[in-house]
Amino acid sequence: MIRPLIWKEWQEQRWKLVFSCLAIATFVSIGLKTRVMPDVGIFVITLMGPVLLMPIFVATGLFATEREDGTFALQQWLPVASWKVYIVKVMVGSAVVMVPILLSMALSLFLAGGREITYRLMFTAYLNGIAFALSMLVYIAVFSLKCNSEAKVFVVAVIIYAVFIVMVLIDDMFLHNTFLNRISLVITPWGFIEAGVDGGAWKSVLLVQSIFSAMVLVAGMICFRRLAGRQ
Amino acid sequence: MKASRALIYKDWHHARWFLVAGLFLFVGIPLLEAVGMQYKVGAFRTDMPEGFVLGFGSLFAIFMAAGGVCPELGNGLYSFWRARPVALWRWVLIKYFAGLFVVLLVCVSSMALELISQTINPLVYRDSEFGWAILTYHTYTIILMYSIAFLVSCVVRKTTHAAILSAAIGLVIYFIPVLMSALEPVSVLNMIERGKAPRFEIVSSSEWTSQAIFGKSHETWGYWFGSPHRIWMRLPWDTALIFHYYRGYWEFVITMLTAGIVVVGLTLLCLKHCVIVRMRQKLLAFSLGAIAVLIFAVGSFALGSNLTCQQSIELVPKCEKHMYYLNGASSGNCGLAIYDVYDREAKKMRPGLIKQYEIVNDKVIVCDYSLEDVEMYSMYGRNAVEYSHDRPGIVWTLQSRCEKLNDTDAKRTLWLVTLELQKESKQVKVLGKLKLGEHISNDNSTPGGCSIKLYGDKIYAYVYGKLYAIDVSNPAAEDATLLDEKYGGPVFGESGSGGKMTRTLRLFKDESLSYQQRVQVTVGLMDYYEIMTGEDKTFVGVSGDSIKVFKLVSSVGDQAAMESDTFRRPRPLERVMDLWPKDACLKDGLLYVLTCGGPGQGVTVFDVSMPGRVRKIAHYAAPDERFRRISLLEDGRLLAIGDSLHIVLPPASR
């Protein structure tokens, strides 16, 4: 029964995957080929653009469209556990987030790897970016479970980003070189961007964020079950 | 008529809140600034409206169109309107003109406030040219944007989607013409440049007949009296009053208005046939993505690289922080670069290393020569080093030494120093040191305008107003012959009239050279990048911020006059990217210009074969490199030299 669920999600999300891959591939290849600005500029745009936008773009179509179209409750009637529906949605969403970023990484490494930025730096930055994007997808998807329109999901996403930005700003301005600084570094997904891969901080960020994401995911699963039952 | 009046009332009723909001933002806030300035510095003045109107004028037009149309066409209201006993064109046009009236009233009153305040309190360092340009050009773009937003709103009928889509189309209208040179005549951002606004000016009769007005915007901005880019008209009712406008002004205005009328016609057609686009997330995303990709792609191809780098060699390691390109010279397939190196004992930078390169059969051979044991002084200017592939072991340099005499005065002595590059020991030996002159000034400024030019067996040196010829057939220059004690410099004068700019060269007296050769040497002594082609006597001036193409038109005695009727200034986007010329070379009607400083740095190739039309045809972008010189190899390939050496293939065709 899982395969039809995956097929349904794929049907709904594939245009986003195609669109994102096309857009990102065009930006990366034109930018790095024509060298309109230093590689680092193109690299930041083509990494941060998808990493920041893809979670919002994908999350808007996960649950809100179902509620908008009135098909949210119908999923309860399917001969499959609701947690499986939920997990399939998140997994397909994660794949749609990851594939364009992986494509961007492959193109960047192929076109400009080692030219101005080393392969290692590019590779690790993209891995951090993927981890950040997946964390953000989980947060946005779960916190927007109750939203019944794409616009509301967008607003929720903006609020989540704003909260994290404020936390990072407070950390930068007031907690520099303190014990709280180390804690605040790992409690937001932004830690993936800030922490390098060489130090222990990256491992701490990965560990803490994995636990946080798993907890949020489980909470979302419970919430999803209740919401589906209520409809 | 009654129905029209009722419609006007209805639309006015709807639009007045936009008018109030627009007037508050576009007029009220600048007025507040002007009053604040009056209170603070005693001058009622505001510069805010130009930014507001340029930045948000079109956005306001979009909000007006989307906010005015969508609520009246959504939710089945369209059928209601069609059922009314009013012709379709009537209620559509009344709605259109009511909104347009509000938009224009807001934007024009905002600009009027700025222009009035600037007329009351003019500033010395800033005229009202920019404000006039916005008023006279951008107003028509706002009309077009409003028309497009009106059409989109009629077709999409959802306020948010219509506004987003119209804003995306606005990006295309504003930025694509900036990026594509073929669309420059309709680029509002290119048009809003200093000196392009139509103006009335009072000109005396004598000035008009002699055509000798050097006005407020003479050469600095590339416009001089009677510039070919402007049309001057004497107004029949007042002979002193002249109206002048940019040649492409009416083309721009007619294009914008025609496009606006076509869009309104399309709107009527769409409404008549009830054309509706169901804008959902997918369509909106693809539309916006397509527009973003279009702008990015056109921008990248306009500014990015389309030339191929065949080979690159690192001359200074990227991690080296204390080594900078100082000066250099090239000749044929070889040349050299002199680098400043940090002297740990003296704790300052000094010329410390020469890298000599030679390209043989696609192989680059680089030899390093140390200058550590050689006493070297400063080498300023583009023409301070000379080198010839006939004598690859010899380098002539113009060096200057500054001695402080007292608190205010400094003595600067200039030397022609001949250096020998010793292959075996990799050392540099001073072969000769010839004092050319000294100059006492009240500061320790650099010796501007001093230069040397190697021609045959002679070096011509222009030093503090004097011109010397030095025989270097024996490389160690021992004696300098004073050719002209009151030479004064290679450029005698510049003037402009009748749409042409004239520059006169001062030729020196040397009976051993022909007239043509003297012109060539004189041009070579110029401090800025003036290049001469061989047979058609074309000069290309790459100085300051523009490229000028001159033709040698006359020669009387020791003077040669060059005339230019064309120039090319960097486009707004090129200025944003800091593409300012630093070095140049010319071959077969192609001008290669090295641009440095900004993110778009590299080598740009211009076609100057037709003096009336300078065209950019190719660019080699190297944003991470620090190039300082370019030269052409014997086979036509391009060599860019700086912290690294790149061999670039020339453009395949024009």
Would you give an account of this structure?
Chain A is an all-alpha fold. Helix content of chain A is 81%, strand content 0%. Chain A is built from nine helices and no strands. Chain A has helices at residues 2-34, 39-59, 64-69, 82-112, 119-143, 150-174, 179-187, 190-194, 200-230. In chain A, α2 (39-59) packs antiparallel against α4, α4 runs antiparallel to α5 (119-143) and α5 crosses α6 (150-174). The longest helix of chain A is centred in the N-terminal third of the chain and has 33 residues, at 2-34. Chain A is globular, with a radius of gyration of 19 Å. Chain B is an alpha+beta fold and 654 residues long. Chain B has a six-stranded antiparallel β-sheet, covered by helices on one side. In chain B, strands 4-29-28-27 form a four-stranded antiparallel β-sheet, with no helix packed on it. The radius of gyration of chain B is 31 Å and the shape is elongated. At the A-B interface, α1 and α2 of A face α10 of B.
Low-confidence stretches of chain A: none
- Using only C-alpha atoms, the radius of gyration of chain B works out to 31 Å
Count the helices of chain A. How many? 9
Main sheet attributes: strand count, strand direction, barrel closure of chain A: none
Total number of beta strands of chain A: 0
Shape summary of chain A: globular
**Approximately how much helix is present in the residues of chain A?**
over 70%
Strand order of the largest sheet of chain B: 17-18-22-21-20-19
Per DSSP, the total helix count of chain B is 12
Instruction: Give the termini distance of chain B in whole angstroms.
Output: 61 Å
Strand content of chain B: 25-35%
- Write down how many β-strands of chain B occur, each being a DSSP E stretch of 2 or more residues: 29
Unreliable stretches of chain B (pLDDT < 50, length at least 5) are: 209-226
> What average pLDDT do the residues of chain A reach?
84
